[in-house]
Amino acid sequence: MKAILGKKIGMTQIFAESGEVIPVTVIEAGPETVTQIKTAETDGYDAVQVGFEDQKPQRVNKPMTGHFEKSGSTPKKYLAEFRNDEGETYELGQVITVADFEEGKKLDITGVSKGKGTQGAIKRHGQHRGPTGHGSKHKRLPGGLAGATYPSRVFPGNKEAGRMGRETVTVQNVELVKIDTDRNLMLVKGAVPGGRGSLVKIRYAVKGQDK
Predict the structure, then answer these.
(1) pTM above 0.90, yes or no
(2) Nearest to 167 by CA among 90, 102, 114
(3) Which of 45, 155, 171, 202 is the most buried (most CB within 10 A)?
(4) E strand or H helix that includes residue 30
């Protein structure tokens, strides 16, 4: 399963031994604590719940305080579940760090993309603009959406203006270039969804993993 929560720090670049410049995203990943183990017998499915980043005790209600005390963990700001279909064994209170991962492996990283607000069809869907000369008043508006007598309505699913961004996005097969165990950092090749400081879920790639 090999999964961990992290916080996106930003982007930079590093140099490979060959001199190649590699653009990387820096992620502060873990340490995280296993706060609950779910099984098919008790919960209907196998999963591991983990907590990331310490939270002030006064910000946690009594039920959640008891939940964290049961695992011997301090209150956490973020909780997430990872399905454990591969049968890996975890213990309540176990601490997972970046040291559990290997450099060179491929990762699937899930985050929430940056919100762009309400945008037109040109920016949102990459449509072309209308003519700009001869008194045209149709420069950035959408084109015709419906016929005349037939069908005399707008079909659902047309690409129009609307809310853009702030969606859950997963990038697959991202290379784990470097690990800094002293500072709990992961350097992954390329960009990942979200802005600086946003939460990301990191796990070993499901497809395309080098054996």
Answers:
(1) no
(2) 114
(3) 202
(4) none
